[in-house]
TrEMBL record:
Residues 1-172 form the Macro domain. NCBIfam families: PRK00431.1-6. This is Macro domain-containing protein. CDD domains: Macro_OAADPr_deacetylase. It holds the Pfam family Macro. It comes from the Bacteria.
Amino acid sequence: MYLIKTIKGDITKVTDVQAIVNAANNSLLGGGGVDGAIHRAAGPGLLAECRTLHGCETGEAKITKGYNLSCDYVIHTVGPIWNGGRNREEELLANCYFNSMKLAMDNGIRSIAFPSISTGVYSFPVELAAKIAIHTVNRFLQDNPDCFDLVEWVLFDTHTESVYESEVDKIY
Ligand code: ADP
């Protein structure tokens, strides 16, 4: 069995997972928000490895080592920029979660932490993002029930945390 949980905090400080997910941009060369925090905490080795990846399409995911972070791996995924919902944003956000879980599973990663992808600078509405996030990951876990021990959402502010928490409550 696996555990799904939400906590309020800084994803760079999480110590109980093998991989953390980065809400990156298409360049994979760092940015603001959680991306900047992860690069600062991981150190310059992360940027050096990211340069070899030649970017990432929206909804796709790529993996690197964790460098100075306490996790072994960082999975970089690129969320959609919210544009009123007319540009397949919902599908692309679901792809971020599915492809991150698939990449983790394919690398033998059994514990993973996600931030709230796309709901910062990319302006995706938090309520809708949380529904998509929890639903997509829960479906993946049901389809692959022996592959994970822990999925953790690490939310930076109280409102986001309460929205994700209430979505998690709905699946139990
Ligand atoms: P995006 O460009 O995908 O919207 P952002 O980094 O701007 O990504 O925001 C995504 C979410 O991550 C927001 O809820 C933001 O508050 C949150 N966030 C920012 N820094 C951290 C951090 N260190 N740990 C966890 N979440 C963070």
